[in-house]
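tool_call predict_complex ligand=NAP
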Amino acid sequence: MRLKDKVAIITGAGRGIGEFTAKRFAQEGAKVVVADLNEADVNKVVEEIKADGGQALGVIVNVTDREQVDKMIADTLEHFGGLDILVNNAGITADNTLLKMTQEEWDRVINVNLTGVFHCGQAAAKVMAEKGSGVILNASSVVGLYGNFGQTNYAATKWGVIGMTKTWAKELGKKGIRVNAVAPGFIVTPMTAKMPEKVLDMMKEKSPLRTLGYPEDIANAYLYLASDEARFVTGTVLSVDGGVVL
Ligand code: NAP
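tool_result ok
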């Protein structure tokens, strides 16, 4: 088991990539905190992990709210007695072209994808620094590396997440904390279900592998980076995108 007895918080774990990551980590022996906005989704994922023989705690959290984030960390420590891994997965889109994007669309995406990552990263890092070990993994995107039509706000946040990842890797390495990002390509989840079919077909055609990705592909990347197999890996951005930008 690659994460035996490690305590891992995964934000946005109620569905999509976060759900699969929580389940994959639990299969590898982690004690998983399923953190998300949506109570019904959280309960479902927790029950499924437990039914599969894993250990899980559900926490309802809005990552934009620092008090709720601090409570998530406190609940984790109280229930599982520690914190080893944080996957900053919660993220949203609110697409529009630059000429049409509203202030509200800009603020909403910045709040979840950047400020939420800051809150969770800072709160977790304080606990990990005291212990002298830990792993923080951040959800970037192929869009954070190359930009994308209609995603000024999202691209800015996913680019920003890479900046935070590299900065935290520099600051926290001496405290025994590794920090990395994963940059998924187009993955079949409720988030991409909102995209036009023809855009998804185009992405498939652009990939040398001629396929879209699935949440399991990203969960496996997080698993590698969270495990001790990646003990010498920090400050990196692992692209898991089927080579779509080649
Ligand atoms: P998803 O299916 O939309 O799931 C995102 C989850 O995050 C949802 O359960 C959502 O809860 C939760 N969430 C949203 N805002 C939150 C908040 N303020 N606090 C706590 N939880 C919140 O997304 P996904 O496709 O799995 O993507 C997961 C991550 O990977 C995101 O950061 C995304 O940007 C990144 N990513 C995805 C792709 C892709 O192709 N899918 C590609 C590159 C990067 P609700 O259900 O209540 O809204």
